[in-house]
Amino acid sequence: MPSLTPEPGFPKSRELNLTDVELGIKKLEKRLEEISRLKNERVPHDSQQVTNCSNNIVNTIREVFGVKSSEYLDNQWFKIIHHNNIPPFADISEFETKYATGLIQATDLVQGLIAWLCEKKEFLNQDPTKKIQATFDSLDLHSRIAEACGDLFRDGHYRNAVQDGSIALIHMVKEKSHRNDITSETTLMETVFSPKSPILKFNDLQDETDKSEQLGFMFLFKGATLGIRNPRSHALNPDSQQDALEFIAFLSLLAKLVEKSTLAKKVSSPTDTPSANT
Question: What pLDDT shows up at residue 54?
Answer without folding.
Answer: 96
